[in-house]
Every structure is written in C-alpha cells, then in structure tokens.
C-alpha cells in the first residue's frame, strides 16, 4: 500500500486519476495548517476509484436558520438534542460531523422519544450495579477466561473518566437528587486546559469545553464560550446562565422555559451541596 499525500482528486480519464497538487498553508485558529492548491496537477494510474465522501456540519445553514452554534460551528443542543428553536432537533453527522451509524441511531431514538414524550423502543440493557462498575476501574490485566465484555466500565451507568484523569480536579461528579447518574460539572477557575479529559473521553467530547461550566464570576464567564453559570446571589439561588447560545438571569422558582428542569436541579445541587466550589 502506498499513500500519496497532498493530492486532491479532480477527475478520472483514460485510466488516470487527475489530481491537483496541494501545499500546506497558514495554520488556522486551532494551529492546524490548511491545504491550498499550488497550480500543478499530477496523474495517478487507476483502474478502480473508491470515493470516500466526508460529511461536514452545515454551520452556515444553521446560522441562517437562527440555530445557535458553538466555537466549532456545531449546533448547540440540549440533552434531548433540541436546538434553541423549539421543536428543531439536530442529530447524526449533522451534529458532530462524520461518526458511527450506531451513534446516529441512538441520537435519533433520543430525539424521537423527546418528541413523542414516551419511550419508543424497549430497553435491552441489563442493569449493572454502580459498585460493580467502580470496582473494575484501574484494572489493566487481561480478563483471562472471563468474557472480554466483563472489563467494560459501563459508561451508560457510570462515566466519570474526565473526573478521574483531570490533574486539577476541574471536572466534578455532582450527585443531583432524583437523578440516577452523577452529572459532570466543569469548574472553569480550576482548569488549565491540559486536554486530558478530551483524550480519555469515550464519547469523543472535550469535557473542559463541552460540559456545563461553573464560573467564578461574570468576568470569567464573559471570557469563555462554554455554556454554564455563575452565582449572583447564593441565598436566593440567583445565577447568570449561558445556555444554547443565550445569556439570561435565572432564579430558583423561575419557570420561563429557557432552562430545562434537569439543569435547574443541577445548578441547585452545586450551589447547595457543593458550595466549596464557589
């Protein structure tokens, strides 16, 4: 097998794949160099060509429709995959770019269930206790005669990798009353953006950017693009919140539809039970 880099296929003619030769351009905001044509072409002998088409998130289309996007141009969605436009959902490759079919299927089910207001498929997962999953953490030995699946940490039940690998403890697992799984909160003031949580996340996420974030004050919040909140009045449980690209002031007991119940309960749990973070 031979890899030919910096070639952009243009057309197939007379058994030759005609390609534009490319050169590395200036680095973009992320530090990654782009590619630009250098004005030359090259022909590669080919009797069969298999096209692998990469999908891209249609950022311009989303923005033209009034859908808020993050710094990467991806649609901002709630836990149910609903955008800031009520009734408009984004799933699959249109949400995070090219990925696995099963992820798109899972997201389709989640969105459909939220639209229908009820489960649309039976749950086939066999329940596993949190204690059993936690006991498997840190064990690197081969499973031996046991099934390979027995090493699974059951991310659908307990997923706290970003908490375990953060050297600054900037990701915190918050126990929210009434919620079975712990909810991860990111503490902006404790993060040095080392990227450990991104490297170890099984969901190809960057928790230090994607998780709901606790900010020390309004200035810190303004200096970040993360979704999250800062506490304005602890006693009244009054906060400035950024959610789905919108900023507003929320106070406990306020029901204006912009902040769904799960996040309200998460904020209250952080303020009441995790006051040492503020």
Shape: globular
Task: Sketch the topology as an H/E string, one letter per element.
Answer: EEEHHHHHEEHHEHEEEH
Alpha carbon gyration radius: 23 Å
The percent range for helix content is 10-25%
Number of helices: 9
Mean pLDDT: 88
Multimeric organization: single chain
Distance between the termini: 56 Å
Strand order of the largest sheet: 4-5-6-7-8-9
The biggest sheet amounts to: 6 strands, mixed
- Are there runs of 5+ residues with pLDDT below 50, and where? none
Strand-residue fraction?
Answer: 15-25%
The secondary-structure class comes to: alpha+beta
Tell how many strands the DSSP assignment holds. 9
Please describe the structure with a list of short key phrases separated by commas or semicolons.
278 residues, three-stranded antiparallel sheet, 9 strands, alpha+beta, globular, 9 helices
């Amino acid at each position: 097998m031979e890899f030919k880099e910096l070639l952009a296929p243009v057309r197939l003619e007379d058994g030759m794949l005609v390609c534009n030769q490319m050169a590395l351009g200036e680095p973009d905001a992320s530090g990654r160099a782009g590619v630009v044509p250098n004005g030359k072409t090259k022909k590669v002998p080919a009797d069969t060509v298999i096209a692998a088409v990469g999908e891209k998130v249609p950022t311009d289309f989303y923005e033209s429709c009034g859908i808020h996007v993050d710094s990467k141009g991806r649609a901002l969605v709630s836990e149910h995959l609903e955008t800031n436009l009520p009734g408009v959902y984004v799933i699959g490759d249109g949400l995070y770019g090219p990925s696995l079919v099963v992820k798109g299927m899972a997201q389709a089910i989640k969105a459909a269930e939220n639209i229908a207001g009820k489960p649309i498929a039976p749950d086939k997962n066999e329940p596993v206790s949190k204690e059993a999953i936690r006991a498997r953490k840190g064990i690197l030995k081969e499973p031996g005669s046991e099934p390979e699946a027995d090493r699974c940490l059951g991310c659908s039940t307990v997923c706290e990798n970003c908490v375990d690998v953060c050297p600054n403890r900037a990701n915190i697992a918050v126990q929210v009353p009434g919620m079975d799984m712990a909810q991860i909160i990111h503490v902006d003031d404790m993060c040095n953006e080392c990227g450990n949580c991104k490297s170890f996340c099984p969901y190809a996420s960057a928790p230090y950017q994607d998780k709901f974030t606790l900010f020390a004050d309004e200035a810190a919040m303004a200096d970040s693009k993360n979704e999250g909140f800062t506490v304005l009045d602890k006693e009244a449980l009054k906060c400035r919140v950024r959610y789905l690209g919108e900023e507003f002031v929320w106070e406990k007991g306020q029901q204006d539809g912009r902040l769904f119940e799960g996040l309200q309960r998460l904020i209250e749990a952080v303020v009441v039970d995790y006051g040492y973070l503020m």
